[in-house]
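Extended Data, panel c. Modelled sequence:
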Amino acid sequence: MTTAVSLTMPADWRDFLALTKPRVMTLVVFTGLCGMLAAPVGIHPVLGFTAILCIALGAGAAGALNQWYEADLDAHMKRTRGRPLPAGRMDRQSALHFGVGLAVFSVALMGLAINLAAAAILTVSILFYVLIYTVWLKRRTPQNIVIGGAAGAFPPLIGWAAATGEIALLPLLLFSLVFLWTPPHFWALALFVRMDYAAAGVPMLPVVAGERTTRTQIGLYTIPMALAAIAPWPLGLAGAIYGVVSVAMTAVFGWFALGVALRTTAPEGDTMQPEKRLFGYSILYLFVVFGALVADRWLLP
């Protein structure tokens, strides 16, 4: 533990908000909402709002517990050293209590107000992110983001279960899409911040296996991701709006991923624009594809 982590000042509400990783939470909430709206049955607006609130709180709890456990790593990385714990604005016990409290409250509220199926999946998603990804995989294997990516893929399942009380093929395909999207998305980021991970001793793929292997893996994972993205259309689970949008957006994703995969190792001082382009587009990609699914469900007869 570094000195910066142990010397703390009083935290304010902005520090607690930062613990929840609000930027990450935005995508989590959106995919959960789309899973709910794509369900074949409606849900009362108040209950729908409650379910989405629970997903947001559960994601915030996972983020807070992740930062509680990784405060020492965050202190060594340029992009994370300004977070509340490594910057010394909060003590670890406060972060732990905040994260556990949010987790318990979100699961309890989901179970009491919505249904047990949604609460159970929410519980699994929080535990998976904290225990499987953060505690077990992150510091031990370069495949951490591959297996751990399942944690971020649960929201569509939770949203669907909140509306229907069960799981079906479409939300499982949405789960697969996010799960397979995570490696190329995250490895694109890891390529241009690899020195941060190296300094912290985190065995991310570019650090352990090198750029060439990482670029190849980005290309390989894009193939099953594309299949999962387009599959709802030919399977009759989504209509033409989703089909056209998913094909077009996935083609662009594939083009960007191919550019990264075929690129040679970046020379010293390279700005890594292809990698940054893929990373930025990958976020837009998920928003648009999931949004198209909702549009398809509500606009087509």
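Residues 1-6 have pLDDT under 50 and may be disordered. This feature is highlighted in the accompanying rendering.
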